[in-house]
Predict the structure.
Amino acid sequence: MRLRRNKLKPWLLVTGYWLLVLSGCGYTTQAVLREDVKTMHVEIFENSIDITKEVSAKDKYEVYRPGIEVDLRDAIVERIFLDGNYKVSSRDSADAILEGEILQYRKDPLRYQDEDVTEYRISIVCDVTLTRIRDSEILIDAESVTGDTTYFTTGTLQETETNALTDAMRDTARRIVNRIVENW
């Protein structure tokens, strides 16, 4: 009886191992793409940054940047192209439409030397909606998607705000496209 029990243990371990391996939990790192959406049209985002409001201590670093909505749309289109999971098309031939609203463009000081700011963080905050055109179903409704970057105003790593803004828009576009592709 004792010999039979010892032969049974390795067999049970091997069987249990293979049951676990073959069943898995269904987790994958691949994109979870929708079958019904292959193409999308990217609208120019609405720029909702209020340039007329009074500046308070809370929002003294909010900035209005003309044309940011067009540049952000271009960055999103470029990111969709680089990602390769979806194609950008005209509104008439698209399966879905991507719309959004720019809520904030912030320029926060991070580092000082004496009385001068030597490093800033630029942040772009927006809401994004992906809607299937066929039945107007909202597929993605993401609030406060934030892309940012930092830049130095002095030293060997010195960069202009315009170049840093381009990096922040690319980061925002990357986060938006990741949200669409990963469907999180």
In short: The chain has one domain: 30-182. The longest helix spans residues 2-23. The chain has three helices and six strands. Helices lie at 2-23, 68-83, 161-182.
